[in-house]
Amino acid sequence: MRLDPRTKLYMVFVVSLIVMMSATTPFLWAIRLSITLIPIILMILEKKYSSALKFLLAYASALVLTFYFLSEQSEGLIASLLIGYCGIVVQFMPAIITAWYVVRTTKIGEFMSCMQKMHVPDGIAVSLAVVMRFFPTIKEEYSSINDAMRMRGVMLGGGNVLRMFEFRMIPLLFSCVNIGEELSAAAITRGLGGENKRSSLIELKLGLADYLLMAFLTASTVIFVVYKYLL
Amino acid sequence: MSIIDLENVNFQYKGSRDGSLNNINLHIEKGQTVLLCGASGSGKTSIIRLINGLIPHYYSGELEGDIRVAGHDIKQTELHKLAGTVGTVFQNPRSQFFSVDTDGEIVFGPENIGLEPKEIKARLNDVVAEMDLDEILGRSIFNLSGGQKQRIACASVAALLPDVILLDEPSSNLDFDSIELLRGIIMEWKRQGKTIVISEHRLWYLKDAVDRVIYMENGKIAREWTGDEFNSLGEEEVKTYKLRPVVLEEELIRDIRGESTSLFCDVENNIELKDFFFSYKTRPYLLFKKKFKESDGDLLNLNIPSLKIPKGKVIGLVGPNGTGKSTFLRCLCGLEGDCKGKIVFDGKTYKGRQILKICYLVMQDVNHQLFTDSVKSEVMLSMKDEDEKRCDEILESLGLLGYKDTHPMALSGGQKQRVAIASAIASGAEILLFDEPTSGLDYSHMEKVGELLQELASMGASVIVSTHDPELISECCDYVLGIKHGKAVYLKKNKEL
Q: Are residues A141 and A167 in the same domain?
């Protein structure tokens, strides 16, 4: 299924909004859970089964732990670590997974076209597009660096957390800066940054799925806010 | 009528003497194909950057003189206005793509200059038909081979219909067959009457393609040949200019494409590789992964049941891109955990994690394997027991002692490579693997790498070097190992040594 990037952006916004407001009653939890299921269903539709499953397991186990095994009276190191871990997963994972879905399934061309439709200035659109373009680059560079570290036997930085971090970050930063510089030189020679309004080959159109999803997201938000704050 | 005019141009980069230009006068006629050659740092890339306006608009420095390209005064013209006039194909496919998908990349330029969607679509179709890109359309750029990436780069430049096309060392990351395709693209542009300027170290594929050859030395134009003079340059003469050969021997070409017919030669003092099987396609599994076997055949990306390779020699690893060279190197140095290969070395059998201890891969992008803030600590990091004396010895033998306290990132490319080698030696690795160490190097730097590899072998290390440079093979390899479709297809003695 092809969703319009505008719908996707709206989804990122709504999902983040709802998961950030704390759910206090079972009804509010129900809304929150149904919102969380949307990106999972979308991922399954995109045939990203393993990611969907991993996320579902992590999220479900965090929920079960929070509700059945942990309470405000929990004590001890393990319990406190678990509270932290579960809190982060329950609170942030839905937003992260939605963002991940959007980045993975949106082509740069679509994204640029969407930004133009929303009358976002080219400067901002281009910067955001470069950020999206950089994710796979960082991943590629990072895995080469990891290989190099495995060969040197310094994966754990000799037990020193700071060095573990340093060894990964220094080469990564150097290569990203270099790639960034060459990338912008190449983009400028192909006319990026001119006064002409950019055009776009991809013409976006909202379809039925887009309208349905947006309506559902809006309705959920309204109901959530009304039940939480006004009733 | 000349389309590119450089008149009395002097240029120096801010804060660096490298690549500066000294009194350049160059006039290029419309429709000419010009080759710029010469050592690294002689100013080839600077000339390319003058023509596409990156100097002075992107790379700043002191610039004097007049530069005119197709009626534009470069100094006064903003870069984006040149987009439809001058197109540039860069050296590194990793860093010249703006999009993540191939279609998006080709239309990126036309979108930037604000063409109508209909026109963009038409240009996309034209370029795809012209360069035969159907099969790689709609794919992620991150999953393409180097050759495919470079074809997309050419296509995305062509989509802007520039009159002037510049290529800055375009063949650096390509294998033999991809270079042939690149030559085809250049010939097609030539036929269309484009003006083409190519800066390049590899010369053989440009024979019979160029009209003029400019030889650069220390920022000056030191010599010029016509195309015919260049085609008939003798081997010796080419060498005196420190250029790579213009003509390749037939046998070397067969070697490099993995098409040599000779079979496996016997080696007495050997290292034995056993059960090297690997596939990138993962199979569904529940509790444990199934081991790969020889009988898995086509499923395997690497299929070497047993292979004896000479010890203490330099072995050139050849074969087309994407047929298993890198996979072989990665499995051999233990980076692919799913590969259960064993190495029999000096009567001992190494497998699994032990392999990581005796094999060391010097990566193509050596920046990835330098972590620390000085050359000395880089070497010490690799040692099990830190031994300063041994560290000095190693640095001495690689000519790095003077740079002991320098930050590795402040060194030149060749020096970085030697730092990586130093840490490999310090880690006690006996088998040193090199992944295309000479791509993008000029002749004298390549010669130096060749000498270094020979030196490592004479110190007792076994060196395996994957390469697309026939020149490097004739320079330093004792043996040539061909890999095709994941299988070792031949191992032969290199006749020249």
A: yes
Q: Which residues, 6+ apart, have CB-to-CB distance to A23 below 8 Å?
A: A29, A31, A32, A228
Amino acid at A158: G
- Chain A hits for B95, Cβ within 8 Å: 178-179, 182-183, 186
Q: Do the domains at B2-250 and B252-493 have one common CATH topology?
A: yes
Query: Per-residue confidence at A133, pLDDT binned at 50, 70, 90?
Result: confident
SS3 A34: helix
Q: Does A178 share its domain with A231?
A: no
- Domains of chain B, by residue range, sit at 2-250, 252-493
Q: Please answer yes or no on whether A148 and B368 come within 8 Å at the CB atom.
A: yes
Instruction: Name, in order, each residue with C-beta under 8 angstroms of B446's C-beta and a sequence gap of 6 or more.
Output: B244, B438, B469, B471, B472, B475
> What does CATH list as the number for B2-250?
3.40.50.300
Which region among A135-149, B11-25, B278-292 has the lowest average model confidence (pLDDT)? B278-292
- For an interface test with B, the pick among A128, A196, A201, A204 (most B C-beta atoms closer than 10 Å) comes out as A201
Backbone angles phi, psi at A178, to 5 degrees: -60, -50
The ipTM of this complex is 0.84
- Total domains in chain A come to 2
Tell me what the mean pLDDT of segment B74-87 comes to.
91
Burial track B191-205 (b if 16+ CB lie within 10 A, e otherwise): eeebbbbbbbbbbbb
Contact B190, B11 (CB under 8 A): no
Which residues 23-52 of chain B have a CB within 8 Å of chain A?
Answer: 52
Q: Residue A159 falls within a domain, yes or no? A: yes
Element (H, E) at B153: helix B146-158
- A226 in a structural domain: yes
Which band of pLDDT confidence, cut at 50, 70 and 90, is reported for residue B478?
A: very high
Is B124 close to A201, i.e. CB distance below 8 A?
yes
User: Per-residue pLDDT tens for A156-200?
Assistant: 766 677 888 888 888 898 888 888 888 888 988 998 877 778 888
Whether residue A100 sits in one domain with residue A26: yes
- Tell whether A126 is covered by a domain: yes
* CATH number for the domain whose boundaries are B252-493: 3.40.50.300
B 341-360 residues with CB < 8 A to A: 356-357, 360
Percent of chain B whose pLDDT exceeds 70: 97
Domain limits for position A62? 1-107+202-231
Global pTM?
A: 0.86
Identify the pLDDT of residue B261: 66
